[in-house]
Write a structure and sequence with these properties.
- The protein contains nine helices and seven strands; from the N terminus they run H-H-H-H-E-E-E-H-E-H-E-H-E-H-E-H.
- By secondary structure, the protein is α/β, with parallel strands linked by helices.
- The protein folds into two domains: about 35 residues, no CATH class; about 140 residues, Rossmann fold (3-Layer(aba) Sandwich), CATH 3.40.50.
- Strands 5-4-1-6-7 form a five-stranded parallel β-sheet, sandwiched between helices. It has a two-stranded antiparallel sheet with strand order 2-3.
- Helix 2 runs antiparallel to helix 3, helix 4 crosses helix 9 and helix 8 packs parallel to helix 9.
- The mean pLDDT is about 95.
């Protein structure tokens, strides 16, 4: 019963149930060649992109760069925001970082405990009517014990490019020469490319690694899961970000 439950459940909830629906649709359209193969193809695409082996294949090349660039030496910590739950309830007030942002926050805090360096928290309001992420990150850090005087807030940026451009201005104004960027491992490659573009010399402390070189896969990791789909989406978003960056450079 345990194995049956583990085998069936992924196909009874999203995203697996969408593949099942498309396979059933393909059966109904079996006399219509184009409809049949379109349904089969989309069903397999959803299934494949929702497996951990595909998300691993997409994310690993990004995280390899993070391993090469990793360092904790510098004179200021830059914490890049990773998303905000705008008015979510929290022990210290309203508004909370997303799960990805919490990983970055925790890493920056541990680096601060180790080094005592000042922190720049970067993240504004992406869409009108939403709060600035940096203010929430600062509130969390203060609640965790970081002195408020150690925290510099950059709350105008809307994306990674603006994060780094505005952080560069702060570093130049404050006299910081060797910033350490704390961000997710999959994000380092794009941050590195942008930093190089704008002339910001940085070290990187990657966090939240999602996979590893010697990873072994078991049968259940070939089944669709929302976690696999989410991590595939994260990787594809990074590749799109790199593509847009290269296109803007060409232009």
């Amino acid at each position: 019963m345990f194995l049956l439950k583990k085998l069936l459940t992924p196909f009874l909830i999203p995203p697996g149930i969408f593949s099942v629906f498309l396979f059933l649709l393909a059966f109904l359209l079996r006399r219509h060649k184009r409809g049949f193969w379109a349904s089969i193809s989309f069903g397999l695409l959803i299934w494949a992109s929702s497996t951990e082996i595909i998300s691993h294949t997409l994310i690993l090349p990004l995280e390899r760069v993070a391993l090469k660039e990793a360092s904790d030496k510098g004179d200021v910590i830059i914490l890049l925001g990773g998303g905000l739950k705008d008015l979510a309830m929290d022990l210290s007030g309203r508004g909370a970082p997303t799960e990805e942002a919490v990983v970055r926050l925790n890493c920056a805090y541990r680096l601060w405990l180790k080094t005592g360096l000042p922190l720049i928290v970067s993240g504004g309001s992406v869409f009108e009517g939403k709060g600035a992420e940096a203010a929430v990150l600062k509130r969390f850090l203060v609640h965790m014990g970081v002195e408020e005087s150690k925290i510099i807030v950059e709350d105008k940026s809307r994306d990674t490019f603006e994060n780094l451009r505005l952080v560069k201005e702060i570093c130049e104004k404050k006299g910081f020469k060797d910033p350490i960027v704390v961000t997710s491992a999959f994000h380092v490659k794009r941050v590195w490319a942008i930093s190089k573009r704008i002339g910001l010399r940085t070290a990187f402390l990657p966090c939240g690694f999602k996979t590893w070189e010697e990873r072994r896969f078991f049968w259940h990791e070939y089944l669709p899961s929302i976690g696999g789909l989410r991590e595939s989406s994260v990787a594809l978003r990074e590749y799109l970000g790199l593509l847009f960056l290269s296109m803007s450079q060409v232009g």
